[in-house]
Amino acid sequence: MTTVIKRSKIAAAVVGVMALTGVGLASASNPTLSQLQAEQTQTNRAQVASQERIDSLFEQSRELLGEYRAVVAEFEALKLYNDHVQALVDDQNATLDSLQRQIDGIEETRQGVVPLMYKMIDSLDEFVQLDIPIHREQRERRVERLRDLMTRSNVTDSEKFRQIVEAYQIEMDYGVGLIAYPGTLSYGGQDIAVDYFHLGRVAFLAQSLDMRNAWLWDNSAREWTRVDDSFLSPLTQAIRMSRRQTAYDVVRLPIFAAENAE
Q1: Which residue has the higher pLDDT, 56 or 206?
Q2: Residue 192 phi, psi (nearest 5)
Q3: Quick one: how far is CA 254 from the chain centroid?
Q4: Is the model more confident about 150 or about 6?
Q5: What whole-number distance in Å separates Cα of residue 144 and Cα of residue 150?
Q6: Which of 12, 88, 171, 187 is 20 to 30 A off residue 154, Cα-Cα?
Q7: Which residues on adjacent β-strands are paired with residue 208?
């Protein structure tokens, strides 16, 4: 019996040793709770860091997308503006081409206008010499001024042409209405102070300031002729009417009848 008890004790001791050995092995092969917690914490930190990187990349991508859209919008705006500017440039180029063609044609136009202006002055001079001598000296001076004007380089051709046309207009005005003006009449070797009067270009007369003598211009003979004393009073009235000194009325004045062509 004693032998059996000893064997039982030995077996229990062996089992105990084996149990202790198993616990030691198990402890050596499995992590402790603190290790697991540390690993979990590290994993969580890694996940947080990864999420932060993901969030950062997402924000960067959003910013880049916004910048891209802004660049695209700016590009479209610039394209529209460039198209607008190009249209303006094309229109300006067309205008410049048109102006250049006009400039190229100015010289040809000038070559035709300048001789025309000289012809107009010559015709005006001839007309003044052949017309009844209304304001003769003034009209002759006007023609001479036009001739002098043509040789002045500081006056544009357009201004020269304007003044020539203006001179023609003045000549036309002489043929309208009742006009009286003072002057000196050379007659019979004497210079007589007179009032000149003309009814358009129908009649041109002169009356001495004492109203005792009157003359009628004969354009065919290119000379003055005395008129009958019966015309003195009507002529005086006509002169006063031209000067707005009396009301308009019918007056009897001498004129030369037009010659019948044979």
Answers
A1: 206
A2: -115, 130
A3: 58
A4: 150
A5: 10
A6: 171
A7: 194
The stretches of 154-262 forming alpha helices (DSSP H) are 157-173, 232-242
Single out the residue of 233, 241, 167 nearest to residue 199, CA to CA.
Answer: 241
SS3 231: helix
Q: Are 216 and 224 in contact (CB under 8 A)?
A: yes
Collapsing DSSP to helix, strand or coil, 213 comes out as coil
Instruction: Name the residue type at position 86.
Output: Q
Measured between alpha carbons, how far is 96 from 200 in angstroms, rounded to an integer? 50
Contacts of 255 (CB under 8 A, 6+ apart): 199, 202, 203, 216
Can you read off the two tokens belonging to residue 105? 């044609």
Q: Tokens representing 19?
A: 């149990």
Q: Which two tokens stand for residue 169?
A: 């207009």
The answer to whether residues 171 and 124 touch, using CB atoms and an 8 Å cutoff, is yes
Vertex 152 angle, CA 146 and 155, to 5°:
90
Distances (CA, A) of 256 to 178, 192, 219: 17, 23, 9
- The 3-state secondary structure of 56-115 reads HHHHHHHHHHHHHHHHHHHHHHHHHHHHHHHHHHHHHHHHHHHHHHHHHHHHHHHHHHHH
b/e code 173-198 from CB counts within 10 Å (16+ = b): ebeeebbbeeeebebeeeebebbbbb
Distance CA 177, CA 252 (A): 16
Sequence-distant (≥ 6) Cβ neighbours of residue 227 within 8 angstroms: 205, 214, 215, 216, 235, 254
Q: Check: CB of residue 118 under 8 Å from CB of residue 161.
A: no
Q: Is the pLDDT of residue 3 over 70?
A: no
Mapping DSSP to helix (H, G, I), strand (E, B) and coil, where does residue 153 land?
A: coil
Q: For residue 237, give the nearest of 229, 245, 227 by alpha carbon.
A: 245
